[in-house]
Design a protein that fits this description.
mainly beta; 43% strand; Jelly Rolls; 4-stranded antiparallel β-sheet
Length: 104
């Protein structure tokens, strides 16, 4: 495994937020490769089918949906996004970590 971005996520949405489950994170500091590989790290055996969307936060306009229906092992195109966050999480009971790695 090479360089990666990681973000801690919670099972419930942040207070006062509609769909946010994590703080912002960036993938633009990763090496420019063709794809991103998404890993979900959890300590519970029951959270094996976690799925979520990834949105990009904007201060003065509506947040953009960047990736949809991500699960452990999903591969997406590489884009140098900043201010991403995990949203609309499904099938989770506890806290988990998302690790994003740039791959060829």
């Amino acid at each position: 495994m090479g360089e990666a971005a990681t973000v801690a996520c919670q099972p419930m949405t942040f207070q006062g937020e509609e769909s946010r489950h994590s703080n912002n994170f960036c993938v633009n500091q990763l090496p420019h490769k063709d794809k991103l590989l998404w890993h979900i790290i959890t300590k519970t055996d029951t959270d094996t089918e976690i799925r979520f969307n990834v949105k990009e936060h904007h201060t003065y306009k509506e947040d953009d949906l960047r990736f949809e229906n991500i699960q452990n092992g999903t591969i997406t195109p590489y884009y140098a996004y900043r201010n991403l966050y995990i949203s609309e999480v499904k099938n989770v009971t506890g806290h988990f970590i998302v690790r994003v790695e740039a791959i060829d």
